């Protein structure tokens, strides 16, 4: 099984959380991230976030809820029209389990810091993670950090906004195709599922 990217893993852990404080230096921040992962301490891990990230996290949580609702609408419309069956291009969304995601980190190390401005930096972070099958992966990624009130915090605002945008677009596709199903646009389950795939890719061409 392919191990998810570190950026996605961070985002999964951060979703729907309420972080608190940060650190005095980028090195302190990453050190405590590693300690929290090692100890399975979700609250401490989630503490290292910028104010912008916290706002983006709230938006991401809202978008994820709406996405789940849109998927349910699509599934109901599909099954009512064509009978029970596979969802095709639809995606099931597992419940959040940040503890499990956090446990995948074996090590988190700061390798270097690029100072972009007095209160902005890019952190080069080396991670070792494990997958469900026990396989490990070593990655080096870059993550922005900002200094707020003399404390350094991870700034994952852009990452969370990207996830919010993607979830919003997927929800729109589910709602669009669900409405078409109810309107009798499609002659078969397969044609509705094909239309969903096209809608998720941004192509709303006629498929009946």
Commentary on this structure:
The protein has helices at 6-14, 26-39, 42-45, 51-82, 98-103, 157-182, 189-200, and strands at 105-117, 120-130, 136-148, 151-154. It is elongated, with a radius of gyration of 20 Å. It has 208 residues and is an alpha+beta fold. The chain has one domain (6-200). Helix content is 50%, strand content 20%. Strands 1-2-3-4 form a 4-stranded antiparallel β-sheet. Helix 4 packs parallel to helix 6 (157-182) and helix 6 (157-182) packs antiparallel against helix 7 (189-200).
SSE blueprint and pairings:
Layout: H1 6-14, H2 26-39, H3 42-45, H4 51-82, H5 98-103, E1 105-117, E2 120-130, E3 136-148, E4 151-154, H6 157-182, H7 189-200
Helix pairs in contact: 4-6, 6-7
Keywords:
208 residues; single chain; 7 helices; 4 strands
Strand content: 15-25%
**Alpha plus pi helix count:** 7
What is the radius of gyration? 20 Å
Strands, total number: 4
Q: Quaternary arrangement of the chains shown?
A: single chain
Apparent shape:
elongated
> Main sheet: which strands, in order across?
1-2-3-4
Helical residue percent band: 40-55%
Head-to-tail CA distance between termini: 35 Å
Strand/helix succession:
HHHHHEEEEHH
User: What does the main sheet amount to?
Assistant: 4 strands, antiparallel
Q: Any low-confidence stretches, pLDDT <50, length ≥5?
A: 18-23
Query: Would you tell me the overall average pLDDT?
Result: 84
How many domains make up the 3D coordinates?
1
């Amino acid at each position: 099984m392919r191990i998810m990217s570190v950026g996605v893993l961070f985002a999964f852990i951060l979703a729907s959380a309420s972080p608190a404080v940060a650190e005095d230096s980028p090195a302190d921040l990453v050190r405590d991230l590693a300690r929290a992962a090692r100890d399975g301490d979700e609250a401490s891990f989630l503490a290292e976030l910028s104010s912008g990230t916290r706002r983006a996290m709230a938006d991401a949580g809202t978008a994820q809820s709406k996405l789940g609702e849109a998927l349910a609408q699509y599934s109901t419309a599909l099954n009512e029209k064509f009978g029970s069956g596979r969802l095709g291009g639809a995606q099931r969304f597992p419940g959040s389990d940040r503890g499990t995601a956090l446990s995948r980190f074996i090590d988190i190390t700061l390798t270097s810091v690029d100072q972009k401005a007095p209160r902005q930096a890019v952190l080069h972070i080396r991670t070792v993670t494990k997958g469900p099958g026990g396989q490990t992966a070593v990655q080096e990624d870059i993550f922005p950090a900002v200094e707020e009130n003399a404390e350094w915090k991870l700034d994952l605002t852009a990452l969370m906004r990207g996830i919010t945008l993607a979830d919003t677009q997927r929800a729109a596709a589910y709602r669009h195709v669900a409405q078409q199903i109810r309107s009798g646009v499609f002659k078969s389950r397969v044609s509705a599922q094909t239309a969903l795939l096209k809608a998720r890719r941004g192509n709303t061409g006629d498929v009946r």
